[in-house]
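Entry 14. Ran structure prediction on the chain below.
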Amino acid sequence: MLTPEELSLLLSGSESDRIEGTESTRDTDKFAQEVCAFANDFPNNGKPGYLVIGVNNQGRPVELSITDQLLQNLGSLRSDGNIQPLPAMVVQKLTLSGQDVAVVEVSPSHLPPVRYKGQVWIRVGPRKAIATEQEERILSERRVAGSLSFDSSPLQGARLADFPFPSSEPTDRR
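Output, structure tokens:
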């Protein structure tokens, strides 16, 4: 769960592949596209992405009413059937500089590519875009690599010396 201090720190920089701020409370398509893009984690940083509703382009909170209905609408993006496979996300209301903002935290998917209404969205730096065929292929390869059994998965950082091999010396077999 993100704290107000962590959110302030993220917002103090410019928008990036991990954070998107908006003053809009009604652009459901934009919100769902962002959720999809964060779930795809194309930069492969392995960290959650954040959609922050109630901030301006400079990342400062604006006076906006964050209602229970808005939070419910944001939460329903996860399971309304338009985003497949379903993303892992958390919706919360936080207070920054005395103003409420809505935050949607989206975890990277283990089953990319994630699609919204059949299209694959990704983050390209500070903006979202429809993935190219090549980018979709990269995401699909991550899905396959992530679904290997434990004994077929690469062991990052392992050296040849870490594995016991049988001796190459001949043995006496009487």
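The first strand starts at residue 19 and ends at 22. Will compare against last week's run tomorrow.
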